[in-house]
Amino acid sequence: MLDTELDLRNNPGVVEPATEVLKEGGIFLISLPDGSVLDGGNGNLGLYYNDTRYLSHLEFLVAGQRPVFLSSSIRDSHFAQIELTNPVFNLPDGTMVPAQTIHLRQLRLIKGAFFQRLRLINFNPFPVKLMLRFNLAADFRDIFEVRGSQRRRRGELLPVEVRRQGLVLAYRGLDNLIRTTRITFEPVPTSITGHPDRAEVSFELTLPPQKKIYLHLKIELDAGNTTSGNKISDLFSAATIEQAAAYHQWQRESTRVWTDNSFINAMFQTAVTDLKALQIDYPGEGGIIAAGIPWYTAPFGRDSLITSWQTLILNPALARQTLRFLARYQGKGVDRWREERPGKILHELRRGEMTGCGEVPHSPYYGSIDATLWFIILLAATYKWTRDDDLLQELADPLRNCLHWCLRYGDLDGDGYLEYLRESPAGLTNQGWKDSWDAVVDREGRLPVGPIALVEVQAYYYLALTEAAHLLSLLGDKPTAAGLKKRAQRLKARFNQDFWLEEEGYLIFALDGEKRPLTTLVSNGGQALFTGILPPERARRVARRLMAADFYSGWGIRTMSKREKAYNPMSYHNGSVWPHDNAIIAAGLRRYQCLDELSRLAAGLFAASPHFNYRRWPELFCGFTRRGLSGPVRYPVACDPQAWAVGSLFSFLHHLLGLELREQSLFISRPLLLPGTRRVEIRNLAVAGSRLDLAFEEKDGRVMANLLKKEGNLKVIIEA
């Protein structure tokens, strides 16, 4: 992500009040609820592929007017249905066609290309002859341009190529690649008119009463000159069937969650299909889950690793593919422009024109202080959950490379802590998960001088050292494992001395470049809990502090206390509520058995969900205090869906139910139910080579756990 004041996360240009998102693989569409994509300057509407907007305008007019919007929905995260009707218009002979007498239904999906079927039904008692016109344009802007970055020069939009059934829009970039958008219609249009940067496609239709008329549209991106020869209507039907089958297969392979609350069930159903839709497969490279739509539909080390960690309870396949993909791109050399170092895990990988031209360093960019630590944490968690010895052997060298980065490059000043300091002029000033330019400030709201040692990063480091020691011991390298254990214990002792803020019963934010503590009260300290770096009494004090009114909004824990000068509930990182941040904190609350705080935290977030589209937690929302019957305030340019926000639902499930693998057994300890439920069932749970069905039910004020079914040898121990 470019560190610039033009970043739309902080300075949105055009913010649409509501949009719909459709994604599959590397292609995604952002449209208005009525399905239209309108030229919006700095707006984000469009059809995207490989970090480029391949379609910037898509609308159709009925008798010269925009149709009237009725409703829209996205089914199972991959199939859009949009209902429209006509405004009043007159036929050439003067006959008036009343409003709402012609129904138009658009069905859309993406499978290697964008498909649309438009069905029209005339409910008038007479035939209606009308002109249907599609307006189309492609600006081929790089995702960084769409987000507000200014370029000194761009490539060349090529003349529109008009064909019998459609047209081709094309652009020659400064990277010498020609990008094309091929648009084909069925039936053959009445006329096609090409302009320098756009086109109009018209149909003269006669709609008999009560009869269905169909138009099909296919948009192919960088398709070359090959054509299938099949009718678009047949391709649309086949793609619909194949997509449904692929999603059903994903659901069958994953854990199934059922509760006695239909709204909670809908949340899980959407989350499961969202995680399928967010996956991207790169031929020859493997697959990975994208961070979020629209801005982060690309591999992000930290985001993909945390999402995979959150969703081990759903499907460990996500973790396996994420680890393999990121190991492939693990740093090999020293590159200051990309902030690459041997063993370092990437932050962000982009494939657009600006990356290809070297205008941005994302090929990939490595400016993340914690992605390498999360690689170790995820590998350890995945091994513990799956007992996959082959995976551990396969990733033994990447594990050692991660440790090499920690010990050789991560500690910039030799004090035993991991720090970051931006090297690349196009890189990030802040390189923890709060990576906006103003996310790290002191209590006066001033930006500190680096290198910066963040509180949660040191806690991650402690956990990574501890887990790596265990993994290396399993791999037979006991001397190195013993050294890592000692290093972890020294780090723990120093951390509790240098990062503890006694007067607040909490942790400081960071140490600056002069080793002065930044005592700003932020949520980062809460993320230290799940690592186990704090003594129990201190951990309980941190838990209580996070649930005080200046941190806890009633909907969730804010990223910054209301008491701070830099607090702004509408900011990206300085007072907003992030579901994934809360989910990581929740994991720590479970670790230290702070169950009252865990219950209260979960209750707030689950109460917020009905106020968002599809009951889906967005990337973040504003940190205003919960009052009365009003809902949480949305953040204007939050990604939705965002992978680690979606994954947070499964993380809460995991830690509320109290599931823990240890000593090659699954322990269930002091389970809590999801808010608003009295019974929860999880079926087809894949863990340590076994498959389990479990049920949790409240009886006489207690939550009882039962093993319904088991395939495999895993021991299940239910603790009182």
Key structural traits:
Beta-galactosidase, Chain A, domain 5, 2 domains, alpha+beta, Glycosyltransferase, globular, 720 residues, disordered N terminus
Task: Describe it.
This protein is of the alpha+beta class and 720 residues long. The protein folds into two domains: 227 residues, Beta-galactosidase, Chain A, domain 5 (Distorted Sandwich); 450 residues, Alpha/alpha barrel (Glycosyltransferase). Helices cover 28% and strands 25% of the residues. An eight-stranded antiparallel beta sheet has the order 6-7-10-11-18-15-14-13, covered by helices on one side. A hairpin with a 5-residue loop joins strand 14 and strand 15. Helix 7 packs across helix 10. The longest helix has 22 residues. This is Amylo-alpha-1,6-glucosidase. InterPro entries: 6-hairpin_glycosidase_sf (IPR008928), 6hp_glycosidase-like_sf (IPR012341), GDE_N_bis (IPR032856), MGH1-like_GH (IPR054491). Pfam families: GDE_N_bis, MGH1-like_GH.
How many separate structural domains? 2
SSE class: alpha+beta
Number of strands: 32
The Cα radius of gyration reads: 27 Å
Average pLDDT, rounded to a whole number, is: 95
Name the CATH architecture of the largest domain.
Alpha/alpha barrel
What does the largest sheet look like? 8 strands, antiparallel
Give me the number of helical elements: 15
Low-confidence stretches: 1-12
